[in-house]
Amino acid sequence: MAKNKFLWGASLSAHQTEGAWNEDGKSPSVQDVRPRANKQIADFTVAVDHYHRYREDIKLLAEMGIKALRISIPWTRIIPDGVGEVNQAGIEHYQDVIQTILDNHMIPVITTYHFDLPEVLQKHGGWTKRAMIDAYEAYVRVLFTNFGEQVKHWLTINEPNIMLLSDQKILGFSYTHQERYQAFYNLMIAEKQAIKACHELIPDGQIGPVPNISYVYPATSKPEDIRAAMYFNSVRNWAYLDFSVKGLINPIFKSYLAATGINLTILPEDRELVSQNFPDFLGINYYTSATVEFPQVGQDRMNGVSDQQSEDVFEHGFYKGVTNKYLKKNDFNWTIDPLGLETTLEMINDRYHLPIMITENGLGAYDQLTEDQQIHDQYRIDYLNQHIQSMLKAKDNGVEMIGYLPWSALDLISVHEGIKKRYGFVYVDRDEQDLKDLKRYPKDSYYWYKNLIKKMEQKNE
Ligand code: BGP
User: What 8-state DSSP symbol labels residue 292?
Assistant: First the structure.
């Protein structure tokens, strides 16, 4: 792959920003219909109205000085029935979005699928069904054919590991253990089809997976806890990247599947597909680290924790999430571990030797809009700065870093916690239930990032 110029950017997803959930031919996705534990938090019907305000948003983000913008394209706007007819209104919308990004001197980095599976496909069994592989391949071929001229950086499936391990919270339903790992296998084969199609249809294009990866620590030096971390590293991290990058199910993961009674349906033709189609780079989402111990008989998962990203991981006989007493947490119970990013990047580099683009990294926080329309988010500046320093150290230690696209470009609807868990460089004025005027206000972190990019680009010129 040609040596890439480092891309300072930012990231967002369609369902968490666009709204217009049923406009211009879009069909419902699982995100539109999934039951939400807390009815009071904002839903995705309007989100932050990016579908109608994208020109203003893209211009404002370009003024921050970013050189790349990661967006996702919803399957439900392109092929509303999941399979079959292409929705021309969807094609035209994203042609204009992409052109607007290019006209603002930024590079579009496009995620083909970010948690928002068409509900019509979920109704037929979703990723547990082998037919999903052909459906996804047909869908991405529509994207590559229509947008491949302008878009040269593609990401396949956002965080398949978190989507599967945190299915109830992200998808609104729980797989059985067997369903989860057949869905894993089908997702991974589908990803290989996307890599193959991208290389066929966009010869100068680059495509990569985009899992959420964080290196897992053992709670103590007890040998049982070391093994607990070994298994969770495999189940959470390496199972996905080993399949994407090496086309294999690694021995530790294989032993885990056997020990937990999983029988995968694998077809003979898969072998050739997985051994010939490889990613050009890795998109890596990193927020926090996890720490696990070996669960004692009778123990269960920690309760009262927020979600998959921290302590609420549990598997009888394998691992149990615990709080890492050496690390601070954010307002939403996510551990903050910038040094863990350096470790994670170097561990990934050791295993895969591929260029890495950080495609998500950020701090969800309660931001306040002051009387004079300021948002003083020094806490976010500190989080991002610490993680950027860690990334630069990993780079100095030999990791080929090609981009940093933090989450999120502008405030959006958190998967788990509505609008109040704000991530953006740009504040969007709405509450959980009160849309207000959705006005955009750059935060202190917007100006800080603008200045940082300018300094970093001067240094590297
Ligand atoms: C990642 C997703 C993003 C975003 C982020 C923050 O898993 O890829 O879509 O949701 O997590 O999580 P949350 O929104 O739960 O704070």
Answer: E
| Centre of ligand 1 from the C-alpha of residue 27, in Å | 22
Ligand 1: distance of its center to the CA of 85 in Å? Answer: 30
Average pLDDT taken over every residue of the chain:
95
Rounded to whole angstroms, how far apart are CA atoms 359 and 232?
Answer: 22
Q: How far is the CA of 18 from the centre of ligand 1 (A)?
A: 15
For every residue of 339-402, DSSP letters joined together read HHHHHHHHHHHHHH---EEEEE----B-----TTS----HHHHHHHHHHHHHHHHHHHTT--EE
The per-residue pLDDT for 306 is 44
CA distance 219 to 239: 22
Give 266 Cα–ligand 1 centroid separation in angstroms: 31
Share of the chain above pLDDT 90, in %: 90
Measured from the Cα of 16, ligand 1's closest atom is 9
Dump pLDDT digits (tens) for 227-262: 999 999 999 999 999 999 999 999 999 999 999 999
Residue 360 a catalytic site member: yes
- pLDDT for the residue numbered 303: 55
Q: Is 159 a catalytic residue?
A: yes
- Whole-angstrom Cα distance, residue 237 to residue 6? 25
User: Residue 170 C-alpha to ligand 1 middle, in angstroms?
Assistant: 9
Superfamily of domain 7-459: Glycosidases (3.20.20.80)
Q: What tens digit of pLDDT does each residue of 168-208 get?
A: 889 989 999 999 999 999 999 999 999 999 999 999 999 99
Domain ranges of the chain: 7-459
Strand partners, 427: 441
Across 193-202, b (16+ Cβ under 10 Å) vs e yields: bbbbbbbeeb
pLDDT digits (tens, 9 = 90+) for 322-369: 999 999 999 998 999 999 999 999 999 999 999 999 999 999 999 999
Tell me, using a 6 A CB cutoff, whether residue 311 lines ligand 1: no
Ligand 1 atom nearest residue 13's Cα = 9
pLDDT digits (tens, 9 = 90+) for 144-165: 999 999 999 999 999 999 999 9
Pocket lining: 334 vs ligand 1, CB cutoff 6 Å: no
Mutate-to-test residue for ligand 1 from 414, 420, 421, highest number of ligand atoms within 8 A of CB: 414
Annotated catalytic residue: which of 18, 119, 159, 342?
159
Closest atom of ligand 1 to 334 CA is: 16
For residue 43, the model assigns a pLDDT of: 94
Max intra-chain CA distance, the chain: 64
Task: Name the residue among 322, 356, 351 with its Cα closest to residue 238.
Answer: 351
pLDDT at 209 (0 to 100): 98
| Ligand 1 nearest-atom number relative to CA 158 | 8
